[in-house]
Description:
Blueprint: E1 2-13, E2 16-28, E3 33-37, H1 44-51, E4 59-64, E5 67-68, H2 74-84, E6 85-89, H3 100-104, H4 106-110, H5 117-127, H6 143-155, E7 161-165, H7 173-188, E8 192-197, H8 200-203, E9 208-213, E10 216-222, H9 224-231
Parallel strand pairs: 3-8, 3-9, 6-7, 7-8
Antiparallel strand pairs: 1-2, 1-4, 4-5, 9-10
Amino acid sequence: MIEVNNLSKTFQKDSMEVRALQDVSLTIGKGEFVSIMAPSGMGKSTLLNILGCLDKSTEGTYVLDGVPVHAMDDDELSRIRNEKIGFVFQSFHLLPRMTAWENVILPLIYSDSDSNMKEKAIQVLTSVGLADRVDHLPRELSGGQQQRVAIARALINNPRIILADEPTGNLDSTSGEEVIKIFRELHAGGVTLVVVTHDMEVALQADRVIQMKDGRISSDRLTGSQLAEVAR
């Protein structure tokens, strides 16, 4: 499903070139749950942005479902994002004056979807345990509930890939566990999940942990649960 080869990304900072990614190659299969782990500044969010078609690499190739994404223009990348990918961020990115369901339907508005948007939003909010919060504003929700609204928004277009950047970073441990539980349920339903984190406990919830250092992949290994599955 996801295949990147010799991916590099260089930013211009003042008069200096900063290499955020260096010669990254990896494959993520359909339905995998993968975590990308590293301290801040090691390239993991840059890689996630490229996988999510929010940014483009300076060098290398990115093929998604057999399509060379690296060769696409901005309009084509926007279409891929809308059709195939859902995003979950650390800071939720909810609009403060819109209710939970109104925040969830935003991707449908951008995609000129049909008129049953509120009904769809309520269904997805119910699936993440927020049936009784659909008309609440973000300020009326806890951090964990806001993140679940963000997950519902990511799911509204039925994407087959969810990319999450530090999704538990602003949450207490109980709320973080609730978010990871939702991710595990999505994974069980066949969704491909890529989660960026600096937290080893979160990383080990995935079936595979990719660690990065200085813009490169330093290790790529299966977790204990997946090793046991492979050994059967």
